[in-house]
Amino acid sequence: MAPSFVRSSKFRHVFGTGAKRPDNTYENIKVSGSAWDTNLVKVNPKYLSINLEAGGGGSFAVVPLERTGKLQDNLPCFNGHSAAVLDTDFNPFNDNIIASSSEDCKVMIWSIPEGGLKENITTPVISLNGHDRKVGHVLFHPVADNVLASASGDLTIRIWDITNGSEKVQLTGCSEIIQSISWSYNGSLLCSSCRDKKLRVFDVRSGKVAMETSGHQGVKGSRAVWMGDLDKIATTGFSRTSDRQIFVYDTKNFGTPIIQENIDTSSGVLMPFYDNDTKMLYIAGKGDGNIRYYEYVDDSQQLYFLSEFKSSDPQRGMGYLPKRAVNTSEVEVARLYKLHSNAVEPISFRVPRKSDNFASDIYTDTCDGKPALTCEEFFSGKDANPLLFNLKDGFVPVKREFSVDNAAAAATLAQNDEKMPTSEKELKEAYKEMKKEIEQLKSTITQKDIKIRQLEAQLEQMNIAK
């Protein structure tokens, strides 16, 4: 009989533990009922963001992480959008700055008061205008300060300088709805999964599609996440026969995935989260109660299933805590925030250890929450990897000031003032007279713009085939 060997891994026995309800969870939340495919929850070392259900507009709440238990009925929120909020993202270099996107075609930047909201805030620090359709995704740059990407139903991904509201780059090439976006390790590239069943990698500064290949062939939602510094991309999606799948692509040989694995035949979209320090991939399915986690070994290019966290309660969304905020005294390697129908539950993933000493073999240097580049340096062509620090001494959030370029904001406001009536009465009259005409023009232009992009994408495919 041939001897059997057990693969050596420090993370083979990682286990997940859910927080005790209701004392250590966040209860009494009116979660958004939007059908848009988004995680609904985002988290940073200080705050938790949840998209809320709001009649007649769009809102989201930001709750301090220490404020667990039953939340108040009239939870203070950011409610400046005129339609449902679809996505939010925290600035990785300033824990008190958050971006939101909405069905009202706008991206807004908000400043969170220290200690959390005490009352509703309706006016953002700055509003980013330019998309013609609802904006489904926002994602901050992992290296450069104050750089934000937004993906919209107008089939564009726009890169912004949030200090002055200027659009720096517009990425085109997708012929259907963009389902997810993810930055590369140094932020020079950005990948997207799309309803046209293509996986694309954009060169951000040139605005061109650098790579493109076929993705999952099912009609349901697909997600993509860059696998840290490995030049690999993990995707989740569905096969033609509705099997849920995980693919891993090597950007150095982008034609076909190096790993293809079928998971099951459930119907919920799979949400992937990757930890670059441990090389672990966490997979949470919408409507599932479990969270699977895998370890990727680059030398053998294998994705090994480790275990799964099991629960009878289905999840509507999931948030991933930045690694710098994990509890090293409990050898915590990851913490996910599971969204229930009216609550958020932290789930801690730990490595079992008997010693109380710092596990230096588990915790490698990780991102420290400081920008390696300014916005100007990034768009001038400079590249840099994220700045790292050691978790042994612990992480203390540092408050950074955020300021808007007042001159640029004033110029934008002046341009808008020239187009807008000067009194409330004039505004109402102009609104009644021009609303119908404006909506018709917008609809016509947008439809033609989308058709042009679809034809351009088809033409490009024909040229590639030749």
From TrEMBL:
Signal peptide: none annotated. WD repeats lie at residues 78-120, 128-170, 171-212. Residues 424-465 form a coiled coil. The keyword Phosphoprotein applies. SMART domains: DUF1899, DUF1900, WD40. Pfam families: DUF1899, WD40, WD40_4. It comes from the Eukaryota. GO terms for cellular component: actin cortical patch. The keyword Repeat applies. Keywords: Actin-binding, Coiled coil, Phosphoprotein, Repeat, WD repeat. SUPFAM superfamilies: WD40 repeat-like. GO terms for molecular function: actin filament binding. One of its GO terms (biological process) is actin filament organization. Residues 4-69 form the DUF1899 domain. Binds to F-actin. Belongs to the WD repeat coronin family. This is Coronin. It comes from Piromyces finnis.
